[in-house]
Amino acid sequence: MMLGRQWREVPGASARERLVLHYLAGKIDVDIYFPLEVLPEGEKLGQFHSALRQAVEALPEFGRVEVYYG
Fold this sequence. Notes:
The protein has a single domain (2-69), classed as 2-Layer Sandwich (Alpha-Beta Plaits). 30% of the residues lie in helices and 33% in strands. It is built from two helices and three strands. Strands 1-2-3 form a three-stranded mixed β-sheet, with helices on one face. The N and C termini lie far apart (23 Å).
């Protein structure tokens, strides 16, 4: 999967439980879900979200990336 290759170098990304893709306005938006057990704390949370988003920015067909825990 294209996203899996992009996230291969992001520590913790392989713990994702679910991925939902939405095709909106010519772009594919991504909702990615992780279990609460892997929720990073403090500034690591922002770094993790940024790393996921930056990896997808290299793919022109993708738009926003939202991260959820639960």
